[in-house]
Amino acid sequence: MLNLRLTPHYWGQKPALTGVMWRVIPDRQTMLLSLQKGDIQLIFGADGDMLDMDSFDALMASDKFKTQMSAPIASRAIVLNSSRPITSSQKVRQALEYAVDKEGIAQGILAGSEKVADTLMARSVPYCDFDSPTYIYQPEKAASLLEEEGWLLPAGKTVREKQGKPLQLLLSYNVNNAVEKEIAELLQDDFKKIGVALTVLGEEKQAFLDRQKSGDFDLQYSLSWGTPYDPASFVSSFRIPAHADYQGQKGLANKAQLDAMIGELLITPDEHRRQTLYQRLFTSLAEQAVYIPLTYSRTKAIYRSELENVGFNPSQYEIPFEKMRFKAE
Fold first, then answer.
1. C-alpha distances in angstroms, 304 versus 30, 41, 47?
2. 108-149: per-residue pLDDT in tens?
3. In whole angstroms, what is the distance from residue 67 CA to residue 29 CA?
4. N or C: which end of the chain has fewer CB within 10 A?
5. First to last CA, the chain
6. For residue 14, what are the domain limits?
7. CATH no. for residue 281?
8. Helix, strand, coil % (nearest 5) of the chain?
């Protein structure tokens, strides 16, 4: 628990709140009960989904609570590891792209609250308003690509094989995120339809981060840095081994060229050149099917009705406590 108190030495406008008590509650059910009992007044979904949409909708229907969602702020995606034995194949990665029913995620899991992402960055993100390759849900095409790559479905079996080896992949996600588990299970079902066995592994956040650093995954859930850091900070992290993006791209033949593009676009004063480099970078990643874009995420806030002026800052990592106040009795 972290107890933050108002400092009398602050030079700016003083907020209405005199302090904020920050409680870390990893268990989602305990968090929900704490809100309902009044032990906490606000759940703010910065950098993750602390409650699923069913819980969000149930709270929205109660007059004791209020809910808000920010504008689309970041990109949800799945990183495909180009360094692993199976996903090193571009055709396999493209097949997985075509196998994902994104509309099923947007409607079935997120209840229509987020829009399907056909590209890694939304066109509203700076330097990203251009046409690039997209993959629309086509399970038949996915199956055809796997056949071309030698992954065949033996009679009486449900998982494809190549030279006696099953087409089995590992997807890692943060178990503390309510939505990631549901998305992983839907992907598992989508892949099963084309003969791909997907092992879903939910881990505590530190184990999840360690795995992305080591590259010990075939697929991993990813959330971009979001506004205002996309795309610059997001692509800058592609060059750092600690990120799943680096591991996902490491096996690409043009990885060194991609990193050089990033290095140049971050420092060039030429606006036209910067735009050209961003387009080349994201087009190459799309052509090589390194990411499966899912939806454009929104930050959620759930709070008790006596709390007022709850809103969002441009960054998903900032909570504007300075604007909040409790309703006068």
1. 16, 5, 21
2. 999 999 999 999 999 999 999 999 999 999 999 999 999 999
3. 18
4. C
5. 28
6. 2-71+300-326
7. 3.10.105.10
8. 35, 20, 45
